[in-house]
Design goal:
Blueprint: H1 13-23, H2 26-32, E1 39-42, E2 45-48
Antiparallel strand pairs: 1-2
Helix pairs in contact: 1-2
Length: 60
């Protein structure tokens, strides 16, 4: 009979990426070590990098 080995937890990079998408912070995405993707689907919810409409006047 084989011995059961404890499962190693993998770092959840997807959750890190989802947090990053919410913040729209590219630097944090690079720190998380995730490939830059424009869309992530998790639990039937899609997170995208759409621009948020904050007010009528845009400041750049």
């Amino acid at each position: 009979m084989k011995k059961k080995r404890p499962k190693k937890k993998k770092p959840n990079l997807l959750l890190d990426y989802v947090k990053t998408v919410k913040k729209l912070n590219r630097e944090a995405e690079l720190e998380a070590g995730v490939k830059p993707v424009e869309r992530v689907v998790k639990s039937k919810k899609t997170y995208t990098r759409k621009r948020k409409h904050k007010g009528d006047n845009e400041e750049q």
